[in-house]
Each structure stands twice: as C-alpha cells, then as structure tokens.
Amino acid sequence: MNQELTYEAAYTELQQIAEEIENETVSVDILAEKVKRASVLIEFCQQKLRATEVEVNNIIKQMENKPGA
C-alpha cells in the first residue's frame, strides 16, 4: 500500500485513528494495531515532508543562482 500512499491519504488516516482513540471507539483488542499503524503513517509523513523540504530548497537555490535573479 505504501507504493500508492500519498501524504494526504496518510494524514487523513491518522486523523481518523486519532479520533477513534479520543472517542474511545477503538476496541482494546485492536488498540495496539491502530497505534502501530499510526506510527508507520507518522514516519511516512515525516519522510515526505523532509523530502519536500529538500526539493523546495534545491529549487530556491537554483532560482537564486540564475542570472538576472
């Protein structure tokens, strides 16, 4: 699933998990599973944000190095 996972989808799923936990609608039997999934989604989002930051910074550097900029 990670091959097609987007930041928006991961964030939405995280919100859903958080809401379920906050509202206590998660069964104790699957709570650990939900927390583990949330951990995976958080890591995915952090990696995506770091990669985007690097890419944006590279674009800005390229723009600053262009003549006439």
What is this structure's SSE topology?
Layout: H1 7-22, H2 28-65
Helix pairs in contact: 1-2
Briefly summarize what is shown.
With 69 residues, the protein is mainly α. The chain is 78% helix and 0% strand. It has one domain (8-65).
Description:
This protein has 69 residues and is mainly α. The protein has one domain. Helix content is 78%, strand content 0%. It has two helices and no strands. The protein has helices spanning 7-22, 28-65. α1 (7-22) runs antiparallel to α2 (28-65). GO terms for molecular function: exodeoxyribonuclease VII activity. It comes from Chitinophaga eiseniae. Keywords: Coiled coil, Cytoplasm, Exonuclease, Hydrolase, Nuclease. One of its GO terms (cellular component) is exodeoxyribonuclease VII complex. Its EC number is 3.1.11.6.
Largest sheet data? none
Mean pLDDT: 92
The H-and-E topology, N to C, reads as: HH
Count every beta strand, where a strand is a DSSP E run of 2 or more residues.
Answer: 0
- The oligomeric state is single chain
Which strand-content bin applies to the residues?
under 5%
What is the CA-CA span between the terminal residues? 42 Å
Number of domains: 1
Radius of gyration: 18 Å
**Which structural class should the secondary elements be placed in?**
mainly alpha
Helix-residue proportion: over 70%
Number of discrete helical segments = 2
Broad shape: rod-shaped
Runs with pLDDT <50, length 5+?
none
Provide tags for this entry.
69 residues, mainly alpha, 0% strand, rod-shaped
